[in-house]
Specification:
Elements (H helix, E strand, L loop, with lengths): L2 E10 L2 E11 L5 E5 L4 H4 L1 H11 L8 E7 L11 H11 L10 E3 L1 E2 L5 E2 L4 H10 L4 E5 L3 H4 L6 E5 L2 H7 L38 H13 L3 E3 L7 H6 L10 H13 L15 E2 L7 H5 E2 L5 E2 L1 H4 L4 E4 L28 E4 L1
Parallel strand pairs: 3-4, 5-8, 8-9, 10-15, 11-14, 14-15
Antiparallel strand pairs: 1-2, 2-4, 6-7, 12-13
Helix pairs in contact: 2-3
């Protein structure tokens, strides 16, 4: 027995960093220790890994297992390190061949199935940019990971099948599950036609203002009595914007991959996004934030698109902003173009 190694990715916002996972099996009493600033979810991986390996027919050693995540000074959060730690431990025990420079990103279920994780697109982008193009993910994340140019992605449904492909003894593995227990693959829900400005009758001056704003990426302030059509016009502004280029689409899709708004992406987001947060939304909901791994707010999700602040005059009075939001002074953190309606 020696030291087993594998690789994964730690995300800090949209930035990803390669993490080298070392595993050592000692000659002492049974224990499982994870080093390298793990959070609570990562510390719980010890029990998930043991159960997943046992139920996959490749039980872990009963001796002391030490997993070290390098660099140790970089905080590690989330369950996406489960698979990398498992592969490093199996390599240390001699159950599989060398994993070379393969990056593993997936959560493990107790039955040995590989579960999808958020942020797979920016994680794979970081791996490719760091010179690690070979990536293993859960089958549910495979389509999204394949969106990254230059990535050599392999998607797996079970830990047993993955270990078998890396040289584990096939007679000890439960390679397949009962079809009744398998989860159907997520199907992409077809989107309906986007609202178009041609649906609006009249409103000549407002239509002209939107066209100018779309052409120059300007902010727009709409004022008028209730029912004048401000929201209807705002919802149709993205229809005036051109499709996103490859680089822009990758940026937007990476941001949406980090949020919990949508499921795993199967194609790049080509249309400019539209976000319409409620005027009572908190600062974290609009700007982004949160404990542990920050999540993008509405302003970030509207990147390269439209952020519509309806009832902007009420924004700040019912939320947790210390000062009411003044739209003309908000250009430092709001993406372009932005709309506000009062």
């Amino acid at each position: 027995m020696g030291v087993g190694r594998s690789y994964s990715v730690a995300l800090l916002g949209l930035n990803g960093y390669i993490v080298e996972v070392e595993a050592d099996i000692g000659q002492t009493l049974p224990n499982f220790v994870i080093l390298g600033l793990p959070d609570a979810a990562l510390n719980e991986a010890k029990e998930r890994i043991r159960s997943a390996a046992q139920n996959s027919g490749i039980p872990l050693s009963r001796r002391k297992i030490t997993a070290n995540l390098i660099p140790a000074s970089l905080p590690k959060r989330g369950s996406g390190f489960d698979l990398a730690i498992t592969m490093a431990v199996l390599r240390a025990a001699g159950d599989i061949r060398s994993t070379a420079k393969t990056v593993f990103i997936a959560e493990l279920g107790l039955d040995g199935r590989l579960r999808p994780v958020r942020g797979i697109l920016p994680a794979v982008m970081a791996a490719v940019q760091a010179g690690y193009p070979e990536v293993v993910v859960a089958q549910s994340n495979e389509a999204e990971a394949c969106l990254v140019p230059g990535a050599k992605v392999r998607g797996y449904r079970t830990l047993a099948r993955l270990a078998f492909d890396f040289g584990a003894d096939p007679q000890d593995l439960a390679l397949d599950y009962d079809p009744e227990d398998s989860q159907p693959a997520d199907e992409e829900t077809p989107e309906g036609p986007a609202p178009d400005l041609s649906d609006v009758s009249g409103q000549g001056e407002a239509r002209r203002a939107l066209e100018v704003a779309a052409a120059g990426a300007h902010h727009v302030l709409l004022t008028g009595p209730p029912g004048a059509g401000k929201t209807m016009l705002a919802e149709r502004l993205p229809g005036l914007l051109p499709d996103l280029a490859d680089r822009e689409a990758m940026e937007v899709t990476a941001i949406h991959s980090l949020s919990a708004v949508q499921a795993s992406a199967v194609s790049l987001v080509r249309r400019p996004p539209f976000e319409n947060p409620h005027h009572s939304a908190t600062a974290a909901a609009i700007i982004g934030g949160g404990s542990g791994l920050p999540r993008p707010g509405a302003a970030s999700r509207a990147h390269r698109g439209v952020l519509f602040l309806d009832e902007a005059s009420n924004l700040g009075h019912t939320s947790r902003f210390r000062q009411p939001l003044r739209v003309p002074k908000a250009r430092n953190w709001l993406p372009k173009p932005i709309m506000a309606a009062c």
